[in-house]
């Protein structure tokens, strides 16, 4: 079974430019191990300007992917810090004077004004 390869836009552009610069189809096909018909297709697309749009879109996608990766790293670091702080809070010793109840109110101070 034939394994299909995918080639980058830069590679396709390079092969098309080499052909237009005077390289033979046979020489290019043999050197890059691709079919002559595929080179013809790439040259036609290159002359039509199809690779220019692909290059701009690929650059935009790469920028977005880099930004997403940076944001994912930031979120990961923040999650680690948050988990660390939660564990530190759970294992921190509590002062003895602090109430252990979830519902706590300030200590009641007896005053003589309310007694009468």
Please tell me about this protein's structure.
The longest helix has 42 residues. This protein is rod-shaped. It is mainly alpha-helical.
Which key phrases capture this entry?
single chain; 116 residues; mainly alpha
Return the average pLDDT rounded to an integer: 83
The portion of residues forming beta strands comes to: under 5%
Oligomer: single chain
The count of strands amounts to 0
Number of helices: 4
Low-confidence regions:
none
Radius of gyration: 34 Å
Helicity, as a percent range? 55-70%
Order of helices and strands: HHHH
The secondary structure category is mainly alpha
Distance between the termini: 100 Å
Task: Tell the overall outline.
Answer: rod-shaped
Major beta sheet summary: none
Show the helix and strand layout.
Blueprint (H helix, E strand, L loop, with lengths): L8 H12 L4 H8 L3 H13 L1 H42 L25
Write a compact overview of the structure shown:
The chain is mainly alpha-helical. The chain is 65% helix and 0% strand.
